[in-house]
Design a protein that fits this description.
Helix content: 25-40%
Strand order of the largest sheet: 10-9-13-11-12
Oligomer: single chain
Order of helices and strands: HHEEHHEHHEHEHEHHEEEEHEEHEHHHHH
Number of strands: 13
Shape: globular
Number of helices: 17
Structural class: alpha/beta
Length: 454
């Protein structure tokens, strides 16, 4: 198996690296933070003078670092949007909610390199001139919370936080709170629902103050950008638009699932076959969930596509949060689409009509295909429902339900049609998803009251 290219997971195998601050310091931990805090002003040839925070923001921009949470927006550009002239407090929020199905890389980072995340938070806070940092962590991540809290206490006792107040806040387990404005609502003690934009968080975010929100992997990369220098970092991966490494979340029907760090630009085939050991039990690959359950699926003829933003975009695909889930030939793709639709129906906050109503339509229509009761006209109806959801909601949750379902219908129409011809699922009990419980099933009820037994 090829060696991983470790950048942010570097040294994780060193004894005590995760749980011992002294070990992290021996390996150069927090040295980048010290250098960032001690940067002198820099005079430019055009007569401008850059302060230390301005230099850090410029270096992050030059590195080409993109957000690792799904949208893939330029990190340095996003930092430049933060309003530093309002006179209000500036907040930095690390989004550690990580609720996208198939995603577990932030979890790995918090478990194995918690101090590198904290160091990244402190550097980012200095760069945007913030003294208030929140790490919003998913409520179910209890072990990760304990590891991160212990690391934070070590850093605090060692005087490494300086004047920054860093708080770890536990969420209550809602997928929607991974969306940045719903996260803000939750952090303020309100129901987690997305806000209308504008205003954007960079101007009016937490407590109506300027706010920067980046996810765990993004912020953890910041220390490495400054340690290596923006020029060297920008040469790693697939420049200019996909620099650095990515902690890929490899799961599904593979021999060696796990979180693997590798440079952008490796192919899906290389990740599944060489790093992951190939499809398990000698089965054939049927589809790949790329980027997360929110995005279109990939077919086997596309697995030589490099894992970078541009290469995937050319084929209508997205790198998302670095998810690669292999689906083998035992899986009924209609059941696969149904489980995705059920998940998003269950997680919809209900604020937007296209999402609240549309996700239910998706479930009903895909279920009718699974049961073999749909008609040929329902293909067009299902795709029309997807079209009426995509781009019509306050946040992308509706899109997250519609895009993968539409891609399954488009790319595997023959399998959907086979259900109609068979009068039900031709896979029967043999599908690997046949008995997978969907949370929405616990809410199902008969539309007509049943007569009580005598």
């Amino acid at each position: 198996m090829p060696q991983e290219y470790r950048l942010i997971l570097k040294n994780v195998d060193a004894p005590g690296y995760t749980s011992d601050l002294e070990c992290y310091l021996r390996h150069g931990g927090y040295e980048t933070l010290k250098k960032a805090l001690a940067l002198p002003p820099k005079d430019l040839p055009d007569g401008r003078r850059l302060s230390a925070p301005e230099q850090i923001r410029e270096d992050v921009k030059l590195s080409g670092l993109r957000g690792r949470g799904g949208a893939g927006f330029s990190c340095g550009l996003k930092w430049s949007f933060v309003d530093r002239r309002s006179g209000k407090p500036i907040y930095l929020i690390c989004n550690a909610d990580e609720s996208e199905p198939g995603t577990f890389k932030d979890r790995e980072i918090m478990l194995r390199v918690p101090h590198r995340l904290i160091e990244g938070c402190l550097i980012a806070a200095h760069a945007i001139q913030s003294a208030h940092v929140f790490i919003y962590i998913r409520g179910e991540y209890s072990t990760e919370y304990e590891v991160l809290s212990a690391a934070l206490e070590e850093a605090r006792n060692a005087g490494l936080l300086g004047g920054v107040a860093l708080t770890i806040h536990r969420g209550a387990g809602a997928y929607i709170c991974g969306e940045e404005t719903a996260l803000l609502e939750s952090l303020e003690g309100k129901r987690g629902q997305p806000r209308s934009k504008p205003p954007f968080p960079a101007l009016e975010g937490l407590y109506d103050s300027p706010t920067l929100i980046n996810n765990v992997e993004t912020i953890t990369n910041v220390a490495k950008v400054l340690e290596l220098g923006p020029e060297e970092y920008a040469q790693i991966g697939s420049p200019p638009d996909s620099t650095g490494t990515r902690v890929f979340c490899l799961s599904g029907n593979v021999v060696r699932p796990g979180a693997y760090e590798a440079p952008h630009g490796i192919t899906v085939r290389h990740l599944i076959e060489d790093i992951g050991g190939g499809v398990a039990n000698g089965r054939k690959l049927k589809a790949v969930m790329v980027g997360g359950s929110s995005f279109p699926v990939m077919t086997p003829d596309q697995i030589d596509t490099p894992l970078d933003v541009d290469s995937l975009a050319q084929k209508g695909l997205f790198i998302g949060s670095g998810v690669i889930t292999a689906v083998d030939d035992r899986t009924c793709i209609v059941q696969f689409a149904l489980r995705i639709a059920q998940f998003y129906m269950h997680e919809s906050c209900g604020k937007c009509t296209p999402c609240r109503v549309g996700t239910r339509w998706l479930v009903q229509l895909v279920r009718s295909f699974e049961e073999g009761s749909a008609s040929e006209d329902d293909f067009d109806l299902l795709l029309d429902v997807c079209d009426r959801i995509i781009g019509k909601c306050l946040c992308v949750l509706g899109d997250s339900a519609a895009m993968p379902v539409a891609s399954c219908v488009t790319k595997f129409r023959d399998e959907f049609r086979a259900h109609l011809e068979h009068g039900g699922c031709p896979f029967g009990e043999d599908s690997s998803l046949a008995h997978l419980f969907a949370p929405s099933d616990q809410h199902r009820h008969d539309a007509v009251a049943q007569k009580a037994p005598v």
